[in-house]
From TrEMBL:
Protein name, UniProt field: NAD(P)-dependent oxidoreductase
CDD domains listed in its UniProt record: SDR_e
Record-linked PANTHER family: NUCLEOSIDE-DIPHOSPHATE-SUGAR EPIMERASE, PUTATIVE-RELATED
Every NAD-dependent epimerase/dehydratase domain range: 3-238
Stored Pfam families: Epimerase
Cited Gene3D superfamilies: NAD(P)-binding Rossmann-like Domain
Domain of life (superkingdom): Bacteria
InterPro entries, sorted: Epimerase_deHydtase, NAD(P)-bd_dom_sf
Amino acid sequence: MRILFTGGSGKAGRHVIPFLLDQGHRVVNADLVPLDHPGVDNLTVDLTENGQVWNALTSYAGLDELEPGTGRPDFDAVVHFAAIPRILIKPDNELFRTNTLATYNVLEAATKLGIPKVIFASSETTYGICFADGEMKPDYVPVDEDHPTVPHDSYAMSKVVNEACARSFQARTRLDIYGLRINNVIEPHEYTELFPDFIENPDQRRRNIFAYIDARDLGRMVQCCLETDGLGFEVFNVANEDVSVALSTSEIIARYYEGVPVRREMGETETFYDISKARRMVGFSPRHRWRGELEK
């Protein structure tokens, strides 16, 4: 497929793009900073500028596409990951403006141009737990996509707004738009750097609902979505199938979720960030677990 990928130079994108290239796709990285990786085409784009987004989505990917003399090829899909990645990087209003305006521009241009599929990054923060002031417990566990999204911060607010915009554009166009509620992204080198401390101090994983997603498995989820057509608008939790600490499910419930309803029987180390919908609807199956990575 010919894919425009926004934010490919970020923490997640710099692993997802190589995965997509390995699947045989052609990828144009639309970002303010280029990605230095063999095979990727880079285009410097300010996504908050509507005209730049339209131009990027009607652009040649590289000089080689001039050779056939048959005109500019169309994009088959847009993967939109670009965003200010969390609170406390820029002022709250600027974060909200940037993240919502960029996503609106991408959705508007992609759907009006008739690009058949948009996959966009939403977030675990939509559930209101990650950046809450003080401790916020889920309404129930495991947390699935039906859990209320009542965020308390500008980043999570922007993601909820982006989901609403995506649903609206899909309702008008009937194209496929899939939102990924991505949990805490872990790069391969971070297992040895971070997880020994997670094991020693599990309290610090509470805000992430004791979950994580390997950046390479996030690429696998994007590929699953690219391969699955006809779902319309959907949102999916994206996480590893295992918890990010050395405690069992029952130990986590006893220590952190006392009194929180447990809606179904869970596996011994099953994630509290439910990925059964992604598994069922697009065939997502993560492969990189922290236990295996630490044993390497």
